[in-house]
């Protein structure tokens, strides 16, 4: 349930932010692309920057014959084309291929021409229901290709809005996306999206994703150290057992020798 009082307060802050961004960044409206191309670019821009996404898009398109060639590609081929070090490269490639395959199974071709004749709400519902689809990509395609009312939001944008105090600090990306669509008019959505993208790009895209890798590395190092200690302990224990065995054997031999010498004396 939406807290009306809080939403009204945050809405004022959002209006102030957008007015400031539009004046300072002077964002240009993005050029419309074919819906399939926009899906590809959208997946590359999600949790990244526009500059990096466009460069990766150009590399990917030049490596493929057509949309169908892209659909049947292996995830590793996508990763190689965009760069294996591209943020979330493996996840990005998997989601993109799943979405394109979903389009093919429904349309018997890699095209979304049929959606141009459908109501805008149906277009958004269609895109959201595709396998592997991300809300950011579905919203961007709806907005830029089908003139639907949508405002793309990913974690990169959500983090900035939380820090700016424009949204509830506990709000999820989905909640923030819904809030933006309720408070930004359809006629202003394209300009607002462009301004917000420039804002995200200026901050370098998503930044919190790098912390996971460090934690994983630390955990692995600790495990190796513990394993080494256990191995060393085992190695130290084994020689002691052998030495004890040898001593016992020597004592037995000594006793036998003593008995023999006594018998010979008799």
Structural notes for this entry:
The chain is mostly helical and 266 residues long. The chain has helices spanning 4-25, 35-45, 50-63, 67-71, 75-82, 89-107, 120-128, 135-146, 155-164, 173-183, 189-202, 211-265. Helix 2 (35-45) runs antiparallel to helix 6 (89-107), helix 2 runs antiparallel to helix 8 (135-146) and helix 7 runs antiparallel to helix 8. The radius of gyration is 32 Å and the shape is globular. The chain starts with a helix and ends with a helix.
Give keywords:
mainly alpha, Endonuclease III, domain 1, about 70% helix, globular
Largest sheet: none
Q: State the separation between the terminal residues, measured CA to CA.
A: 107 Å
The CATH architecture designation of the largest domain is Orthogonal Bundle
Given helix and strand content, the structural type is mainly alpha
* Helical fraction: over 70%
Q: What's the CATH topology name of the largest domain?
A: Endonuclease III, domain 1
What ranges have pLDDT less than 50 throughout 5 or more consecutive residues? 209-266
Percent in strands: under 5%
**E-strand count:** 0
| Overall pLDDT level | 82
**CATH class categorisation of the largest domain:** Mainly Alpha
Number of helices: 12
Apparent shape: globular
Using only CA atoms, what is the Rg?
32 Å
Name the helix and strand elements from N-terminus to C-terminus, one letter apiece. HHHHHHHHHHHH
Query: In CATH, what is the homologous superfamily of the largest domain?
Result: Hypothetical protein, domain 2
Strand and helix map with partners:
Elements: H1 4-25, H2 35-45, H3 50-63, H4 67-71, H5 75-82, H6 89-107, H7 120-128, H8 135-146, H9 155-164, H10 173-183, H11 189-202, H12 211-265
Helix pairs in contact: 1-11, 2-3, 2-6, 2-8, 5-6, 7-8
